[in-house]
Amino acid sequence: MKTRTVTGQTKQAALPIKLGCSSDAPGIEYALARIPGIVKVYANPVTEMVYVEYDPALIRQEQIMTAIKQAGFGLATDCHNDRVTIAGEGVSR
Fold first, then answer.
1. Residue 59's closest CA among 85, 29, 89?
2. Among 28, 56, 87, 92, which has the highest number of CB atoms less than 10 A from its own CB?
3. How is residue 76 annotated by DSSP?
C-alpha cells in the first residue's frame, strides 16, 4: 500500500478494475500514488478492486477513473447497464 500525507478531510472509493494478472497490482498502485490528492491506494488482484483514499479538495473521482485508464488499466463495468458507480458520490460512467 502506498501512503501520502494530506491534511483535511478525505474520502474513499472502491473501484472495480480489470487486471491482467496479480503482478499488475503494484503498477496501478504506483501510477495512482504519484497523483497529488491521493492519500492511499491499495489494489487487490484477487477481487480486482482498487481502494483509494483521496482529498476531494485536490482531486475528483472522475480524475481518478481517468488516471486508471491512462495507466493502461480498464474499469470493470456492470454488464447489465455499462455503468460504474463509486461509493459516496454516485459517479457513474
1. 89
2. 28
3. P
